[in-house]
């Protein structure tokens, strides 16, 4: 690929991050009346002031602006991170049992007190990033406290891995589902992926021996139970003994996992494990390109258990796909992956970036049109996937764009 093309790629990503994504969040999302951030904003920028506020949205805001400040320090980024931290600490932290609640209403009153490990993972992730820019030992202590609670209550001592969801008092819940569309099973790929992501970031700021072993164990869980070595896809849901309960394929999680696994092994600095995971990452990236890409270079949402493609595409999958392809290029030096990343970025520019109101559309349909009923900001949609992807791309492309 010509250097000029890489430079253009880099410059386009940089402009998108700072002039669109971040400026949108700085200018549109703070709830000046009730504190924190609005729970929902529509594509035409209508604010639902009565919308619930989720742990995931708030933790993702905290992580994104903390990591952004670490990447390019500006006081307004620290201000947003501090606002997110204060709101989480005041409204989501359980002072009686520890850990974080799942959902509060628009006034900050708890309406779901479950301890979902997905939510605890993002809390650890966000607190670790905030500690990285503040060096406040209290914040690190809060991240470590949640890590210890997860290990104490939700780690499966018999079969390894983690049980999905606890009640407020950390007893295992009957309804384990992360959301209404998920299966009610003891373990999931998704939760393990984000626990690995969180433990990786925590290990970078707190290189504890026990945490290191837990991170190694998580990588091995992916190698032995979650990743199908024949198909190069992740299995999605499991019982407590790791029997697979679903035949569906999530292309976005596959490609996201390919680079997060590499990030985890890089943090551990284990050369043998790095080699194993990098080979897997290349195979997973190839499979995603062959099976998951549409003819417009967007990634499909899912292939169901019967083999039928769900012919829509969500914003987060595109962001993770581009990082995954660049990661595969860095490992293999095969420009096939870099060319794919550029084409996929161009598809994001064409189909997902909202040129009128800012940020990215949540979803496009089979014809490439945005689903306008989906919210621009919601319980699940924050600045984390596309914001993180842009930061990752800028860091990874910089050596090639000079």
Notes on the structure:
The structure is a single chain. With 402 residues, this protein is mostly helical. It has a domain at 1-30 and 247-402: Glycosyltransferase (Alpha/alpha barrel). 54% of the residues lie in helices and 8% in strands. The protein contains twelve helices and 15 strands. It has helices spanning 3-28, 55-71, 75-91, 117-134, 137-153, 189-205, 209-226, 251-268, 271-291, 315-332, 335-351, 384-397, and strands at 40-41, 47-48, 53-54, 103-104, 110-112, 115-116, 165-166, 187-188, 227-228, 233-234, 237-238, 302-303, 309-310, 313-314, 363-364. It has a three-stranded antiparallel β-sheet. It has a two-stranded antiparallel ribbon with strand order 1-2. A hairpin with a 5-residue loop joins strand 12 (302-303) and strand 13. Helix 1 runs antiparallel to helix 12, helix 2 runs parallel beside helix 12 and helix 6 packs parallel to helix 8. The longest helix is centred in the N-terminal third of the chain and has 26 residues, at 3-28. The chain is globular, with a radius of gyration of 20 Å. The model has no long low-confidence stretch (mean pLDDT 97).
């Amino acid at each position: 690929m010509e250097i000029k093309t890489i430079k253009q790629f880099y410059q386009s990503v940089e402009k998108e991050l700072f002039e669109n994504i971040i400026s949108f969040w700085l200018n549109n999302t703070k709830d000046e009346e009730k504190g924190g951030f609005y729970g929902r904003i529509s594509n035409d920028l209508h604010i639902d002031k009565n919308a619930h506020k989720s742990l995931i949205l708030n933790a993702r805001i905290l992580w994104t602006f903390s990591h952004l400040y670490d990447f390019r320090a500006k006081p307004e980024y620290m201000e947003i991170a501090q606002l997110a931290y204060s709101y989480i600490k005041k409204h989501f932290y359980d002072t009686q049992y520890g850990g974080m609640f799942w959902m509060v209403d628009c006034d900050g009153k708890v309406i779901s007190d479950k301890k979902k490990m997905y939510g605890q993972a993002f809390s650890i992730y966000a607190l670790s990033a905030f500690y990285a820019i503040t060096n406040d030992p209290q914040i690190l202590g809060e991240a470590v406290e949640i890590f210890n609670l997860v290990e104490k209550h939700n780690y499966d001592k018999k079969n390894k891995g983690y049980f999905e969801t606890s009640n407020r008092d950390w007893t295992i819940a009957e309804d384990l589902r992360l959301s209404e569309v998920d299966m009610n099973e003891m373990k999931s790929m998704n939760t393990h992926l984000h626990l690995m992501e969180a433990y990786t970031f925590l290990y970078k700021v707190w290189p504890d021996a026990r945490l290191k072993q837990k991170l190694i164990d998580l990588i091995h869980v992916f190698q032995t139970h979650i990743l199908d070595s024949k198909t190069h896809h992740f299995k999605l849901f499991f019982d407590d003994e790791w029997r697979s309960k679903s035949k569906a394929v999530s292309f976005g999680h596959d490609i996201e996992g390919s680079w997060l696994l590499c990030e985890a092994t890089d943090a551990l600095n284990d050369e043998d494990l790095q080699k194993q995971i990098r080979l897997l990452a290349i195979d997973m990236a190839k499979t995603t390109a062959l099976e998951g890409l549409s003819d417009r270079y967007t990634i499909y949402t899912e292939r169901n258990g019967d083999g039928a493609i769900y012919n829509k595409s969500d914003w987060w999958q595109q962001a993770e796909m581009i990082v995954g392809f660049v990661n595969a290029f860095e490992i293999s030096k095969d420009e096939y992956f870099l060319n794919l990343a550029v084409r996929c970025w161009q598809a994001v520019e064409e189909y997902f970036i909202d040129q009128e109101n800012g940020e990215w559309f949540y979803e496009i349909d089979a014809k490439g049109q945005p689903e306008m009923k989906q919210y621009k900001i919601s319980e699940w949609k924050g600045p984390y996937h596309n914001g993180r992807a842009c930061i990752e791309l800028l860091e990874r492309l910089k050596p090639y764009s000079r």
